[in-house]
Amino acid sequence: MVSSLFSVDDQAQAIWVYLEHTDGNLENVSLEMLSEGRVLADQMGWPLVALLLGHGIEDMCQEAFTYGADQVSLAEHKLLEDFTIEGYTSVVYQILLQSKPSVVLLGATHNGRDLAGRLAVRLRTGLNADCTGLRINPDTGVLICEVSGFGGGVLALIEMQSHRPQMATVRPGVFSLREITAVPSETIVRPSFNIQPKDIYTKYIERFGGGDRIDLTGSPVLVAGGRGIDGDFQMLETLAQLLNGEVGATRPPVDDGYIERERQIGQTGVVCSPKLAVCCGISGAFHFVVGIEKADTVIAINKDAKAPIFDHADYCIVADVKQIVPQLIDALK
Amino acid sequence: MHPLNIIVCLKVVPKSEEIMVNTETMAIIREGVRSEINPPDMNALEMALTLKDRYGGQVALLSMGPASFENYLRVGLSVGADHAYLLSDPLFAGADTLATTYTLAQGIIKLGGVDVVLCGEESADGATGQVPAGIAEWLNIGQLSMLSNLELDLTRRVGRGRRDIKGGYEIVEVPLPCVVSVQTACNEPRFINFERNPWAFSDARVITWNAADLEANFECIGLRGSPTIVTGLAEADDRDRRHEYIEGTAHEIAQKLAALLENLLEGV
Fold first, then answer.
1. What is the ipTM of this complex?
2. Which residue in B23, B51, B89, B170 has the fewest CB atoms around it within 10 Å?
3. Is this prediction's pTM over 0.90?
């Protein structure tokens, strides 16, 4: 086996969280990882370090402290203004090799996955993708990652013994946000790194933003549709509006183009923890169920009495969703 | 300017809806489960064939797995690919992301002269989405992720792609060669071409390479080359739910449900 660039013997006992930001705001998934990282850091007595790259972004450090960071490792440079995979991989790599943290967590966003995938290869270490749970063995300091990628109701526990850092990505919505009151040391460290214009070869030609950002993870109510609604998301939209919620979907209607991918719930979509999830015409495959498992209350409507979704529901309605939902909309009005 | 060389990485996965788990042994039941080409990879193949239609050149399929994967590669040949390569060796088994991306990168190096490596967004079984970035890193080339569209400028040797971002899109350019991951369902994969079938399913050769053919470092492949180990399987937390059935006519159910919802959402 090929060893990683630094070993268990060289590692610094610390948990690092890579912070992602858009338009001057830290992403929720970054704050969620800080919140969970704080718990792990307290258990181990290790520092929690937030890694922040960009340009003119020092203001964001305060929020990192609010969510539990002891220290922010801040890398600012004009060439880091936009995320480029080559620029960010190079700088994060240099900083990690200086500090040699035991654990590095990144969000399982598009850029986070790309960065994690590159870094793990460059550092010759392992990467546990899309973890749904993290803990650290108090005796050995080994990170134990819970991963639910095996298609059934099974969680796999994955760890690495001899490779460092122990890298993991975490999907948005998996961990809860926790602000802290007792503020730890609040230190900002500016590590040295080298970056040159010739290192950057990704060019942004055009960027169009400003549309509505769909973020299901923050919605208290979700009305989700599966194959059984035959693409009638208009009906669910009406119901969602009456309940002040958002519409979500399983993968098939998304793949079939009935609804935006940002609305996909589950293992390959978002993991949500709403107060209420109303599942309409959804069979309840495990891939979907992991996305609503944290809902306070689940209501399921499906005409197939044997649909597995009923195993995961508080209120079960065995009926045709296309009959029930319109009548429910009338009743609520 | 050489003809355009495209490689599409294909994974063969068990059909996700057929996978069951033996809850006593915590093992995945593989018997009787049919396999298929990872559906997102079909979107990558479609993008490759669209590029070939527009710019000419050739499309090669690259997969890692047992000899039984050969027939799935033949499906890809029927759909429109020109060549198929299968990296197959018991020594490749048990590979995690690091070892898998190393092995695929070795295959791409052996093929030589590639301009674009296309991958699906993620696999339906593992769903880690980390493979394209890993391949790009081993090859030390650029990458474009989650593209819904790709255009090439073969004179300037660049690839320019469009990808969706929150609330909009961006157009990004990198030099060739590059690795591209393709957004799932961004295109409509073409079907098997019956005219190509006699060639695809019998005359065509699927070239198989083992670890020695790839001149792979044996320390970097399969289980040996994988830093991560699965140390346990546990049943997913089954949250206690009430499992209360609401019954009656559609009208009665709707009334009960409306009352329940008002109750549940009080104060939200």
1. 0.89
2. B23
3. no
